[in-house]
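Review form for a predicted model. The reviewer records the input and the model, then writes brief findings.
Reviewer: anonymous (R2)
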Amino acid sequence: MVAISHKTIRKHIFLHPVDKRRRYSALKSALLKDKRKYSDKLHGALLDVKNLKVVGERHLVVEGYISMEVEADFAVFSPRPGLILEGIINKQSYSHLGCLVLGIFNASLSIPDNEEMIPQIGDSVSFVVTEVVVDGEIMFMRGSLESITNRANPPKQEKEELEETKPEATQLSKAPTIKTEPVDNSTYEQEDSQPSLTVSRVTVKSEMPSSDSESPSKSSKKKK
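Model under review:
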């Protein structure tokens, strides 16, 4: 991206004695503390630091801190009017579009008169920078939409065209259907059925003498 420039800069840093063993990581974190913030000295916002090296071998100790001079390559984002940048739409209103550049910096784009050129949230677009606004350490841009480079959600017409090309593949993927015919189970029921049994009730009469009748032995005794 043309808006990113690389500058080799020297800076003076005070390093704490505790960070002496991890000197390079501590120096880099100290340089990146102003990352993504606008700087008048850099004429832009710092993105990254590379090729870090310490200048000199002897360093002064000032109030317990090690005074060191370092040199590094600074990647700086410095947009200006007339540049064409790319971003992703993250907001949408009736009059303006919100665009995010490099996933960090905001840009406000005016909605074009052409309805076919109106992007949706998530679309990648290119726009022309018309103004760079700096408010303290915050930097944002204004611009006009140039083109839609990539749509996150294709229009309905494109979706329908894609779906029309799929039926052949979907038909092959479907498993064949097997038709089943009903089976007549009446023949099996007749073979398995058992003949019905008729049960008749039989009553048996007992010929035992009743309790009121006297036994023959008792009657013979009376006659005597």
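Findings: Residues 187-200, 202-224 have pLDDT under 50 and may be disordered.
Further findings: The longest helix spans residues 23-31.
Recommendation: see findings above.
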